[in-house]
Predict the 3D structure of the following.
Amino acid sequence: MKMIATLAILGLFIGNAVCDCPNGYMRHDESCYKLYASTKATWAEAFMYCQVFGSDLAVIETAREQTFLEGFLRREFKSGMSDGVWIGGTDALVEGEWQWVKTGVSINQQEFRHWWPGEPNSSGALGEDCMDLLHHEHYNWNDERCDIPANFLCERA
Ligand SMILES: *[C@@H]1O[C@H](CO)[C@@H](O)[C@H](O)[C@H]1NC(C)=O
Ligand SMILES: [Ca+2]
Ligand SMILES: [Ca+2]
Ligand SMILES: [Ca+2]
């Protein structure tokens, strides 16, 4: 009996260790997410912020993850936040060849892609090489100028 109780407690402990995210993160499936809603940074700064805290700019690989993040960001949105929220895609190395920086995986070849209609549009004279989720485009994917200060979304395992 005592043995079983010990095992049960141990199981609970291990179970929690697997399921818990660090304080301030939101769990979904195998990932923990943190939206930096009151810090605005360029894409490169946001990339570094995430790394400092043991995470990466978010990588969206499935429709399920996209749907969760749309709901999460919609709930968290409040006035004062930037329209766009940085995530971890860029085509800064080769124009038009989008990749997730964390993994180096080609976004163009990923089965799941979720660009807003008309995006990426490389708008403006300077073009747009960094990926964000725009509130006014329902958190679908957009290419944005990398030097714009915006809120950002980090993800960790
Ligand atoms: C191009 O993308 C920008 C955001 O990066 C958006 O604000 C703009 O409306 C888009 N332009 C067109 C014509 O879709
Ligand atoms: Ca992910
Ligand atoms: Ca581009
Ligand atoms: Ca764009």
